[in-house]
TrEMBL record:
InterPro entries: DUF3048_C, DUF3048_N, YerB-like_sf. Residues 41-178, 211-323 form the DUF3048 domain. It comes from Geodermatophilus obscurus. This is DUF3048 domain-containing protein. Pfam families: DUF3048 (PF11258), DUF3048_C (PF17479). Gene3D superfamilies: YerB-like.
Amino acid sequence: MVLVATGVVAWPTAEEHLSDLPFLDSVVAALTPSSAHAWPLTGVPADAIADRPALAVKIENSVDARPQTGLTAADVVWEQVVEGGITRFVAVYHSDLPPEIGPVRSIRPMDPAIAAPLAGLLAFSGGVPTYVTAAQDAGLQVVSQDSGADGFHRTTTRAAPHNVYAVPQTLVDQADAAHRASPGAQFDHSAAGERPTAVAAGQPTTTLELTLSGVSRPRWTWSAADGRWLRSEGSTPAVEADGRRIGATNVVVLRVDVVATEARDPAGNPVPETILTGTGRALVASGGYTVEATWSKPGTGDRVTLAGADGAPVTLAPGTTWVELVPNSDGAVDIA
């Protein structure tokens, strides 16, 4: 299976690989669970796990929406192509509820398949009724700004529609009796003393250059000093509103089919839908290494599973994860 179109990476010699082991061992020791409890979405150890549901929120990623607020606090962030080739995020919060997040935008047709395995809340600013119904039918509790739900507000520092923000704790407090349970694990994480699959069986990688569309080209660069992948929007470092650099412990790239729906945005662009059931190629990045994999998701309510060439489950490093949904048709994944 060939996933990477360009970017030839030399495998380290045995001597070079051995020289890396002390650093990798320290990273693994720092990131693997050492207690009986671990947050289900990150695998990070904790003395106790908060009994609350997962909160998935639609966050905008147009130029007018940057810098965003609260993305670094998310356990998992999914990036998807929407109309006009721009991208939006589904940011999932569980282990950390920041004071504020945003800008919050509207639901899209692929969101139920992303959020349904969490069995929690899906928050957004509004959207096409059929998309909202699909989320409810998938077992999610929807919390929408346009329906008058608590927890949303508009800031005066930005123009509409880029000014809807939310308070996660207020959103979570509205969970009904059927949506108060903590989520199950969405990905497999390496156990204590074990290396994540990319580190154990992958190739050393410095950068991931992704093409999601003609106008969306995120880049991820491994920072050994930070122990995580740092995000850029093209050549511009991605930061939060408070100046913090946006990054992730793991980056999971899923190659997916994206189809045009009959819906149109105000500019006449077709609303695309990412097909997130079935199977496809994947690339998993952890600890400065990448490994090719296969993703599988049988149904809307099933989580995505990752398998290596040998069929064994692919494990991630404990920590935050960004999932990049790269179109099969005109997307690209290059590593170096």
